[in-house]
Design a protein that fits this description.
With about 375 residues, the protein is of the alpha/beta class. It folds into two domains: about 200 residues, Medium-chain alcohol dehydrogenases, catalytic domain (Quinone Oxidoreductase, Chain A, domain 1, Alpha-Beta Complex), CATH 3.90.180; about 140 residues, 3-Layer(aba) Sandwich (Rossmann fold). Strands 3, 5, 6, 9, 10, 17 and 18 form a seven-stranded mixed beta sheet that branches. Strand 15, helix 9 and strand 16 form a beta-alpha-beta unit. The longest helix is centred in the middle third of the chain and has 13 residues. The mean pLDDT is about 95. One of its GO terms (molecular function) is S-(hydroxymethyl)glutathione dehydrogenase [NAD(P)+] activity. Belongs to the zinc-containing alcohol dehydrogenase family. InterPro entries: ADH-like_C (IPR013149), ADH-like_N (IPR013154), ADH_Zn_CS (IPR002328), ER (IPR020843), GroES-like_sf (IPR011032), MycoS_dep_FDH (IPR017816), NAD(P)-bd_dom_sf (IPR036291).
Length: about 375
Amino acid sequence: MSWNVTGVVARAAKEPTELTTIVVPDPGPNDVIVDVQACGVCHTDFAYRQGDIHDGFPFLLGHEAAGVVAEIGEDVTHVEKGDFVVLNWRAVCGQCRACRKGEPKYCFDTHNASKQMELEDGTKLEAALGIGAFQEKTIVHEKQCTKVNPDAAPEAVGLLGCGVMAGIGASINTGEVKRGETVAVIGLGGVGCAAVAGAKLAGATTIIALDIDERKFDWAKTFGATHTVNTKGLEPQEVAEKIRELTGGFGADVVVDAVARPETLESAFFGRDLAGRVVLVGVPNPTDTFEVPMIEIFGRGGATKSSWYGDCLPERDFPYLTDLFLQGRLPLDEFVTETIAGDAIEAAFEKMGRGEVLRSVALYGDGA
């Protein structure tokens, strides 16, 4: 059988999304139907809408989601009907060259559902990050489902599906923040604030939050920032100097760039200590370039790393972080600025663009 649900589709670049009927097919052998309870409005969905990912329109949006397994394919063993899951877009294959050499966080052939969702006229839809969850049901591969404690609120733990995991992982997994280290985070949207939270979890003693918007500093303090710096009007080297001033003149052990512009990466590069680590977790514009004298790369040592999905392994990280949330040690619920209905995604994009929200979360079914 198949299901008709109402979903959010982007038909053309930079055009408003529309609510329309989506046909969700019956699951293939290793597929799962999930009853979506909550789905966060992530900047990546907006990037799909704008045509910044690629031009394979129409797109079915939504990917930062949690829900309950409703139906499973005949060969599914990873989950059972009734399991509470967070959806992920790193369902590792176990066979590619990255997986074979023990680096599944870089898996180059992640699993997706064997069948595509469609419009009523039969037009195939590409689901955002292989998920497509701005609707009451979606179809994914079984390994895109990560079981977590069902006591957790879906609107909170669903955010682990993308942006919050990216930020926390940028600090803990990629930046490898250690107890007693100093950390600076540039850009205080959802990913940046999550990087602040990750730095606190890892035991950083000084956490510097930097942004051009004063309104975001209260958010950053909620997640553990010890210092804030308004960088509006400052040159990159001036921003780097601000970081050095707050770290004994040396620079931070780890600087996380959650903005990904040439000027912010320059601030991060020169704002770190000798042998410090720079982590680029923001997604840069493909046309941007970054230039630095080679002697600076050699002389400063350390590392400049990119962080894909926070270098996470969903089966390891999602249950662990969910448990920390339930123990009161990780305030995932503080990322939820508002909950909305499924027909308010466009308005949520506008609020996100104005910097008014960390996350708007659409509620569906039992979560609504």
